[in-house]
């Protein structure tokens, strides 16, 4: 079977096949770096991460590009207010995004920045003007003339037949039901950042950024374009209009949209007090792996209602999987193999893949693994596990974790980083007793570390390199870097 995915363009679940051989070229709209990322953002980013991990696991070469929107209305306004350049203002939040993405297990896409492609964006506008699909207004702004693109609305399934030619809007986000000529390029306003280019001074509109960078990195037609559901209109509709008008070719083949996350049943908003960044949750003492597990537990097209109860349950689920893995890898069992465990492992591997191929049914995939854990734990308790069962059961967990990425025991060093960050920012009051306790009790003392290093030395003397590697990996997961040199073994905390 092949992967089947919902394609917003066809409005149905279609079989996913890359346009070119075995290579998948995909683009996700990334963060606008004017603040710390919230859990809604990470709902979408984790969904796309899971997709790209599964594609890799399925044997595809994946070229995954994500943009950093480091110039837009809000950024320019905030930077001007803070008396900083756009770059100074966004650098802090871009770094925070990279740290947060790593914290929640997002395997690094290739990142591209809008501010590094300004001239290409101006060229794109000039070409559209030459083709009669864009025009300049008196103030030096440029607009896309949507009347030249009769398919406008094909992604969002909106009927714009009554639209008024020449009606304009220059905001990046506008009324959901109006079709207006939208700004490709905005003339400079006093006190705001702008760039001098061949089409005059100004700055790009947000939609243009993604068209230019995705096609530069992935070609005029590529496989998949992703984002949260709010981006379908106008952002993605406008990307399609600009790109297809310029190239005359279909832009992205598949459109992948994650449903918006709610918090305790409501839309997340600062005024309701239900707005959480990833860091807010860690400050309250929650593990990053709990949030990743929770975000992946509801398939991306279903509405995820974030609750603190759900987050606690997710922590219990991750613990259960980690304990099971430990029980298997640390135990010693009689020789041989139990046919029931062998078929349990192969059936679970099959169910796992079938669930993910079914439009990334992550809930079914997790259920399959938990059923395996339940049955194998029962077999443990009645001494039914044989040494030959360990590898196949562990292989299923490893394959699950290639996609879900929650089993590494690396929460504590990540939580410590957040604690250190809050301290450096003067936000001690936001650090919960739970976070302090988790970091304190989760950290190995120097004496504990020395004990493990001694065990590594003993193992190496006995030429038991496997045990030495296991110990080294355990230490790495706890944030301890071990270096083996010809003079001995050294360690330091990450
Ligand atoms: P932004 O930084 O606002 O440009 O958003 C980055 C990504 O997060 C986009 O793909 C948005 O669609 C997505 N996003 C924003 N809020 C939510 C939410 N509550 N649930 C899911 N995705 C969201
Ligand atoms: Zn975009």
Could you characterize what this model shows?
This protein is of the alpha/beta class and 494 residues long. It is built from 16 helices and 18 strands. Strands 6, 7, 8, 9, 10 and 11 form a 6-stranded mixed sheet that branches. Helix 9 packs antiparallel against helix 12, helix 10 runs parallel beside helix 12 and helix 15 packs antiparallel against helix 16. The longest helix is centred in the middle third of the chain and has 23 residues. The radius of gyration is 26 Å and the shape is globular. The protein starts with a strand and ends with a strand. The model has no long low-confidence stretch (mean pLDDT 93). Bound molecules: adenosine monophosphate (AMP) and zinc ion.
Please outline the helices and strands:
Layout (H helix, E strand, L loop, with lengths): L3 E4 L4 E4 L7 E6 L10 H19 L3 E8 L4 H10 L3 H18 L6 E4 L4 H13 L3 E3 L5 E3 L23 E2 L11 E6 L8 E3 L2 E5 L1 H13 L3 E7 L3 H16 L4 E7 L3 E2 L2 E2 L10 H6 L4 H10 L7 E2 L1 H23 L8 H19 L4 H20 L5 H18 L6 H14 L8 H10 L3 H16 L3 H13 L2 E6 L2 E6 L1
Parallel strand pairs: 3-4, 3-12, 4-5, 8-9, 12-13, 14-16
Antiparallel strand pairs: 1-2, 6-7, 7-9, 9-11, 10-11, 14-15, 17-18
